[in-house]
Design goal:
mainly alpha; flat
Length: about 100
């Protein structure tokens, strides 16, 4: 999922963040109301992403362990190889976007 910036929605995003803080301690219900087309779904998506982010914690050791397992399968055996692989991905993405 690609996060989308919600322009001019800082007050609502602040309320969502406050709600999530309170809900983490004692639960709660979040209700969105408004006319069609005002961005309720976008706010709901932002709330969902924030809630998942609050629950998800990955330590650097967890990330390192996963990278240690996957890098050899991708042919990445050094920092230079990682740099080259990321550069190749960037070029591939740029080529796809220009088509």
């Amino acid at each position: 999922m690609n996060p989308v910036a919600l322009v001019g929605r800082d007050p609502e995003l602040g309320l969502i963040a406050s709600f999530l803080d309170r809900a983490a301690a004692g639960g709660g219900t979040l209700l969105f109301t408004g006319e069609p087309g005002v961005g309720k779904t976008a706010l709901l998506d932002a709330a969902e992403e924030a809630a998942v982010g609050e629950r998800l914690y990955l330590s650097h050791r967890t990330v390192a362990a996963h990278l240690y397992q996957i890098f050899p399968r991708l042919g990445i055996t050094s920092r230079a190889a990682l740099r080259d692989a990321l550069d190749a991905m960037d070029r591939h993405d740029a080529d796809r976007q220009s088509d």
